Amino acid sequence: MKHPHIRLLLASSLLSLAIGPVPLRAQAEPTPHLGRAADNKILAQQIVNDLMKSHPELILCGLHAVAPGAEAQTMIASSQDKIGKSDDDDDVAVTKERKMILVPNAKEPNKFEVQVPLQDSGGNVIGACAFVFRYQAGDDEVPLLVKAKQIRDDIAKRLPNRDALFRSI
Fold first, then answer.
1. 93 and 105 Cβ atoms separated by less than 8 Å
2. Angle, nearest 10°, between helix axes 43-54 and 142-156?
3. How far apart are CA 91 and CA 94, in angstroms?
4. Which domains, ranges and CATH numbers included, belong to the chain?
5. pLDDT tens, position by position, 28-43
6. Mean pLDDT of 129-136
7. Under 8 Å between Cβ of 43 and 36
């Protein structure tokens, strides 16, 4: 046969005839339960709540860090019910590589996301801050980066170290 994919299809068809019908399984795993922001009783969540009240230009806010006893970085505080959501490679790169991300939302042109490294009061990188600002396509993005860094610096004043993020309130 010239086409290997036909050979594979034929082999799988013969195998299914030999072993009989196989029950179908769901293709995707169910979404893991994510925590509610209202149930998140740590300082990081209080900071997010305070930011959302004092910065009307913000649509969303989230803080990412490695929780005590965890190995991977996750969403530890958010203005949405996404507590515990696994971080993607971009979120981790903001922390580990000290990258800053500025990106308009492709689906919603009135939103612009800025991610910057989260720092403690000593300037140590302890996670990542994600801010989604109100935006109009064509607006200058530089002021949004400046604003994100100002907010991040204000957060740092409240954090003597990474562990403070997880202090019960």
1. no
2. 140
3. 5
4. 37-166 (3.30.450.40)
5. 444 467 899 999 999 9
6. 96
7. no
